[in-house]
Amino acid sequence: MLEYQGKEWLRKAGIPVPAGRAASTPEEARQIAAELGKPVAVKAQVQAGGRGKSGAVKLVNTPEEARAAAASILGTQIKGYPVRQVLVEEKLDIAHEYYVTIIVNSARDARCPMLMFSTEGGMDIESVPEEKIFKLHISPLFGLEVYDAVDLLVKAGIPNDQLMNFANFLVKFWGAYKKYDCFTLETNPLVMTASGDLVAADCKMDVDNSSVYRHPEMGIEIARDLGHEPTELDVIGWGIEKTDLRGSGFVMSMGFDEKSPGYIGYHPIGGGSAMMGMDALNNVNLKPANYADTSGNPVASKIYRVAKVILSQPNIDGYLLGGFMMANQEQWHHAHAVVKVLREILPKKPGLPCVLLLCGNKEEESLAILREGLKDVEGATRVEIYGREHVTDTDFIGQRLLALVKEYQEEKRK
């Protein structure tokens, strides 16, 4: 979630947040500041930390200053993310800053949510000594009780007259974490104002990918961690997974610029196989145009959709079906799907290099389906099919693909 989105959900959960809303233009930022009628903070909205240190959070006193601040922030980039919105919200009268986060502790002796609290919140939380960050494992069955929160706060040094104020906030914060199926929920800083109120001045909300289907009201477009803004390919690829839960089957962007040579439509089968296929490509200086996966015994129709997206990318120089593992799923589903796709694609991309490695359960039948199904297909002049004899032979597969790609590139130049 972007900060302003997370804060809206905190507000709906009864957690105090600063008044304000997002703006997409400098004029809109000016109007929001005028409506608030007080000094405001103008904050870049990107899925990246360190905004304050990068100058993307500005404190201003007038609507015109808010407009100017928004104009200086919008359109910039922070850690590779373009700033398309700013949050314009009231400037708080800060008495003290705290740090609160709930994350999943996946350690073997924990495997539960963990609350972390510090009285040293703010911009440099990374440099706070470990002994000043207090941690509490939360029972998934019983949740965070007030007395557990009080015990933690006493250890952190919160004064007695403030214990219940903080404890009630933490319990409500846990309630939001659980209600929204969060993987991470953080406010840094949690601000105590001069009047003694606790306000979530910032919000980092990360909803568990596997729980997104339970929250259609959030309008999350892609339930996957991408590390970049979703591309058109990401949206299309996620649509396959979103609408069909039979096995895994998705496609993700890998930064393909659609102009440079040497990009391969990459179709691995499973995580270990994916890494070996990457080696096969990297070792011969070929590049994956995308990432994908079809594992967990998906049906042929789902594999077909994934392969169709991969092969429909413009200007790829080849296609690699990388089954670098002896899979226990029935591989003839892959064979049927790939045959159907290549019979549709190759007449439109004649001579496209295709190296198909498939082995494991139903291997003989699968290889027979590939050979028979692609026999005499128009444009299938550079299709090579391999089985278990090359299951871990990344050098061989890479070299065969490279040789076919060089032929194909030379043919295109003529």
Which features would summarize this protein structure in a list?
single chain; 414 residues; alpha+beta; Dna Ligase, domain 1; D-amino Acid Aminotransferase, Chain A, domain 1; Rossmann fold; 3 domains; 6-stranded antiparallel beta sheet; 11 helices; 19 strands; 23% strand; elongated
> Whole-number average pLDDT?
94
Number of alpha- plus pi-helical segments: 11
Sheet of most strands: 6 strands, antiparallel
Estimated helix fraction: 25-40%
The CATH architecture of the largest domain can be given as 3-Layer(aba) Sandwich
CATH topology of the largest domain: Rossmann fold
In short:
The protein has 414 residues and is of the alpha+beta class.
Structure in words:
A hairpin with a 6-residue loop joins strand 7 and strand 8. This protein has 3 domains: 19-90, ATP-grasp fold, A domain (Dna Ligase, domain 1, 2-Layer Sandwich); 94-218, ATP-grasp fold, B domain (D-amino Acid Aminotransferase, Chain A, domain 1, 2-Layer Sandwich); 232-413, Rossmann fold (3-Layer(aba) Sandwich), CATH 3.40.50.261. The protein is elongated and about 80 Å long. With 414 residues, it is an alpha+beta fold. Helix 4 (146-156) packs across helix 5 and helix 6 packs antiparallel against helix 8. The mean pLDDT is 94. The strands form 5 sheets. Strands 7, 8, 9, 10, 11 and 12 form a 6-stranded antiparallel beta sheet that branches. Strands 15-14-17-18-19 form a 5-stranded parallel beta sheet, sandwiched between helices. The chain is built from 11 helices and 19 strands. Keywords: ATP-binding, Ligase, Nucleotide-binding, Tricarboxylic acid cycle. It is an enzyme of class 6 (ligase). Its EC number is 6.2.1.4, 6.2.1.5. InterPro entries: ATP-grasp, ATP-grasp_succ-CoA_synth-type, ATP_grasp_subdomain_1, Succ_CoA_ligase-like_bsu, Succinyl-CoA_synth-like.
